[in-house]
Amino acid sequence: MPAVLVLLLVFICAASARAQQPTAADPAAVPIEQEPRHHLVFTNDFVRVLDVLLPPLYVSQRHTHTYDNVSVTILPGGDDARAQARIGFAGYSRGGYSHVITNPNTAPMRFIAVELRGADRGVAFGEPAQDDHLPVLSNARVRITRVKLSAGESLPEHQHANGYVSVIVLGGEGPGVWKWHPAGEAASPLSAGAQPLELVEVEGR
Question: Sign (positive/negative) of CA torsion 145, 54, 77, 23?
Fold first, then answer.
């Protein structure tokens, strides 16, 4: 099975969403931003960000993912321990496929999807900015890291060689809050405050 399908199926299973077997891009499918529950909320030369909210038992229109993408789970579709463990899961898929996705659960599912625009620009990632950045995935296209801070813990100012999107999955300003950080910009110090803070960073190249 091609690696792209393996990665996609891992994401689908981990998120408890059901999808038809993905196919090569289907001319009859709508672009992802035209699927009613996939809301395009940001775009620049490097990324597009979509806020995806699937109501219970929702069946999507058949839609096409043109770009490589990373989906971060915000709402897992349930309150049981197994579902809650999926919060913050980040799954990477290669672009160029079409599919239909279903939420089979009785609770909403929400994802923040970061699409990586354009071809690989060949910019090196460099070394991780801090030991607190836990590696999730690194390949020729993207580096995904996770930051976890306990209550009262802080992370000093740091930089990334490439632009990246941070997505809060716990604490802070609230799950699902995201921000684009330009390459080389000094990221403000992070502080967990009275509650733990967890976020996922998606850095393309």
Answer: negative
Question: Which ranges in the chain belong to alpha helices (H)?
Answer: 3-15, 81-84
What is the rounded CA–CA span in Å between residue 83 and residue 109? 10
| E-state strands within the chain | 18-19, 23-24, 30-31, 38-43, 47-54, 63-65, 68-76, 90-93, 97-99, 101-102, 109-116, 133-138, 142-149, 154-155, 164-170, 178-181, 190-191, 197-204
- pTM of the complete model: 0.85
First-to-last alpha carbon distance for the chain, in angstroms, is 26
Task: Kindly report, residue by residue over 117-175, the tens digit of the pLDDT.
Answer: 965 565 667 655 566 789 999 998 999 999 999 998 888 777 788 899 999 999 999 99
The identity of residue 192, as a single letter, is A
The per-residue DSSP string of 63-104 comes to: EEE-SEEEEEEEEES--SHHHHTTTT-EEEE-SSEEE-EE--
For 137, other C-beta atoms within 10 Å of its C-beta total: 15
Q: Identify whether the C-beta of residue 146 lies closer than 8 Å to the C-beta of residue 133.
A: yes
Q: With H, G, I as helix, E, B as strand and everything else as coil, classify residue 170.
A: strand
Query: For the chain, which domains are there?
Result: 3-116 (2.60.120.10), 133-204 (2.60.120.10)
109's tokens: 């599912």
Tally of CB atoms within 10 A around 130: 14
